[in-house]
Design goal:
CATH topology: endopeptidase fold (from Nostoc punctiforme)
Helix content: 25-40%
CATH superfamily: endopeptidase domain like (from Nostoc punctiforme)
Oligomer: single chain
Number of helices: 5
Strand content: 15-25%
Largest sheet: 6 strands, antiparallel
Length: 165
């Protein structure tokens, strides 16, 4: 039991938005009804919002500290949906959709490092109204916050939207 806990702690410490090599299987959710998936989305978003104000911690997945992919990972895990732990691997899951189709629960991906042209940041859409998209994510400077795609920094770094459920 102690080994399992030690391995879990070590894996969490090594995981981050885009630097870990940890792989994970994805659970596919069938859309039997919009009502069931809608309830799951609401629970995922609500769980994520519970982390607002949590400080940033590289590889973090708890209220003591959280990184961007950790926030998305634990929010989906709360509803028994397993995603990869890294943002660039998350960007290979689900279905790519256009920005005008975005809805609550979708994942937004960014390239924030101009020197490396890879996805290194992820957020969870918490609101989409008339061209205004708000998403929750964890930043190294401000921790877990809700931002808008209308902000020039995020708009410039935006890459794609993916729907997992």
């Amino acid at each position: 039991m102690k080994r399992i806990i030690l391995i879990c702690l070590l894996a969490a410490a090594l995981a981050s938005c885009g630097t870990s090599r940890q792989s994970s299987k994805t659970v596919v959710i069938e859309k039997n009804s919009k009502n069931i998936s809608g309830k799951k989305v609401n629970k995922i978003v609500s769980h994520a919002k519970g982390f607002v104000g949590t400080r940033y911690k590289f590889g973090g997945t708890t209220r003591k500290g959280m990184d961007c992919s950790g926030l998305v990972y634990v929010s989906f895990q709360h509803e028994n949906i397993t995603l990869p732990r890294m943002s660039r691997e998350m960007a290979t899951r689900g279905t790519r959709i256009s920005l005008n189709q975005v809805s609550e629960g979708d994942l937004v991906f960014f390239k924030t490092n101009k020197n490396r042209k890879v996805i290194n940041h992820v957020g969870l859409v918490v609101e989409s109204k008339r061209g205004s998209v708000k998403f929750i994510h964890s930043t190294s400077s401000r921790g877990v916050i809700i931002s808008s795609l209308n902000e020039s920094y995020w708009n410039d770094a935006f890459v794609e939207v993916r729907r997992v459920i």
